[in-house]
Amino acid sequence: MEFCSNCGAIMIPNKDILECTSCDYSNQICPKCGEKMDIKEGILKCNSCGNLKNLSENDTSYKVSKTIEEHETVKELGEVNDMRSTIKETCPECGHDEAYYELKQTRSADEAPTRIFTCAKCKHTWRAYH
């Protein structure tokens, strides 16, 4: 991945050159010395070794080798399978004896974390500080 030396944006391949989509700067790597080449009036020139390359329309060094279809890869915790921790705790609303729980550090670090319960049946949420 190359970055534009003028503005720092990502350079995008277009035929045989890399182009900046933000500031229209273009460059290429010199095949002789490995330094970056600058383009001026359709000619690539290496500032290090002086190598010149005339750009032509049929020169295509960059090709799309594989098209990747967009798909969702990020899943929310518990979206596919319910992976939350359960505990035997009685819901104060419906009396059901199973709840999901989380531990969160809501107060200072030297105090115990807060336990947050959610009833597995009615989804009522409550907390305990001990």
What does this structure look like?
Among the domains are: 11-54, no CATH class; 85-128, Single Sheet (N-terminal domain of TfIIb), CATH 2.20.25.10. The protein starts with 10 loop residues before the first strand and ends with a strand. With 130 residues, the protein is an all-beta fold. The chain has strands at 11-14, 17-20, 26-29, 36-40, 43-46, 52-54, 85-88, 98-104, 114-119, 125-128. The strands form two sheets. It has a six-stranded antiparallel beta sheet with strand order 1-2-3-4-5-6, with no helix packed on it. It has a four-stranded antiparallel beta sheet with strand order 7-8-9-10, with no helix packed on it. The protein is built from no helices and ten strands. Strand 9 (114-119) and strand 10 form a beta hairpin.
Give a brief description:
The chain is mainly β and 130 residues long.
Q: What is the element string, with H for helices and E for strands?
A: EEEEEEEEEE
The helix content, as a percent range, equals under 10%
How many distinct helices?
0
Total strands: the figure is 10
- Main pleated-sheet profile: 6 strands, antiparallel
> Termini, distance in Å?
52 Å
Strand order of the largest sheet: 1-2-3-4-5-6
Strand content: 25-35%
Radius of gyration: 30 Å
Mean pLDDT across every amino acid position: 78
Which structural class best describes the helix and strand composition? mainly beta
Assembly of the depicted chains: single chain
Flag low-confidence runs.
none
Shape: elongated
